[in-house]
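Quick board copy: two proteins, each given as sequence then tokens.
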Amino acid sequence: MKNMLKIIFFIVLTQLVVATNLPIKIFPMNNYPQQLKYWVNIESQNNIPLVSQDLQNKHFRLLKSHYFGTSKKDQSPWSEYFVTAILEGNTNKNIYVNETQSLATFTNQNKNESNLGYGINYLAYDTSWSNAIANNMNINQFKHLSYDKTNLAIAITNLEAFAIPTSDPWFLSYTQAGNGYPFNINILSNIYIATPLYVIGVSNDKKWSLVLTPQFIVWVKSSGVGYVDNTFINNWNKWVNQSLVSIITPDTPLINRQNIVLDSAFAGTILPVETTTKIGVYAFVPVRDQYGKITVSSVFLKNADAVLIPLRATESNMITIIAKLMGRTYGWGGFMGYNDCSAELQAVFTTFGYFMPRNSSQQVTVGNIIDLSNLDATHRKNYI
């Protein structure tokens, strides 16, 4: 027994020694003020609009078009015209090519040491791991695609979005700055509950679905995908066009009229409104009934946790929304339900009715770029 305890103690001690010698340095965030009032006048009552009402309404119409649109001009997963263009688009950028490239990214075959992918055990993946994923993906199904109205869908829970159909992480070596845990290259984002989808394909084991969302094409777990028909979509859009609400408090519980928690909502989640009250709103969320059909359930959202959108774009309102998101842990690609930088921007701007692409490289193209590179740090901060 004593020898066993010694062995256990040695193993734990060894792990602690290894952990304290990892070549990881944490950026000294505490050297920079983390209080919102340092950066903006949090006491400000400035309600002067930052943009015109007409411009804000224009962006709100664009947001609804990207999410729920069904016409030829809409770039939505529910638009037959847009989906067809994606499925039958440029052969150099088609889905089969993109998925083939993804498979090449997530394999260690013929990779040099600096590009190897590692699992949670700090060991590099062997080729049997990536081969099994490739076989399950059934990539040949993406060679010839055409629109199928039975593939219209909606997220019935929050979904993690992956580059390839596995929840296994893909870490580059932690000895390289900005890599290793928690920078899981396989996870791309989170798809919020009630997000419209189009299912492009399904894995051999049926556990994974490749879906088109308003922002990107990703793999998600099939259990969170609910197939819908035109009747559902027409009813949903009728409610959408009446009134929409955006979640502003992270991890807001979605509690139905029977006092059952259906899920929780990320900040930036948008839902159609059923009715409003003095203390909050009842909003619709999609659910699967006992027969497997997708229907809706009504959940109550307090005024402190959700606002009707588009919220007027004023300095005061902007400060209120940003303050709701302060102090949260950074999460690469939405890791563990946290926000990375681009998801944070998306959550803020959605509340004001602005559609934002998911990643930073696309977001930078949305507005006007102002070059501050000729200014020193002090003048850049003062400008911002």
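And the next:
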Amino acid sequence: MFVPVAFLGGISGEIYRQFALTIAVSVLISAFSALSLSPALSAMLLRPSRGQQRRGLLARFFARFNQAFDWTTHRYLSGVKLLIRRSVLALAGLAGIFVMAGWLFHVLPAGFLPAEDQGVFFVAVRLPDGASLERNRAVTAEIQEIVRTTPGVVDLTTFGGFDFLTQTSNSNVSTVIATLAPWDERKAPTCSSSRS
């Protein structure tokens, strides 16, 4: 039931996606454990006496499963014994995990929103409800002129009657998308993305 949450759109979808996927994966792991490992442990604890040998297809399946489970258990225990005897290997592995985690902290983005500009910005125009299309056009034309004269803006795209933020159409909304010049062409202080 958590998987649909991972497909929500917008900011709420981005925020909840990691939690939804984490919970969904943990539920799958729990289901695998409940359907395979717990019954196998019960079968080991409630194993029939050696004098009773069962026959049939299901008995052969369980015999093969028990052999595979025993093999996995012995491999796991031998690995643990090796790490206990040679603790330097365990400490080296742990140190490697720490180094990898530190490297990932530096490589992966640290925030939800990127720190640098993407070379474009949006201007949402919203007039009072019931505003006419002519009034919306006049206000949008004024905003276009202001944005066009802003240093670093090279192109404008306007969607009259469409609100990009809410994905709705109405006579009192417009969206102006301004495309900026490439980074290397915006060296002047008036074109800096760090200005507020």
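Board note added afterward: Residues 75 and 81 are 10 Å apart (CA to CA).
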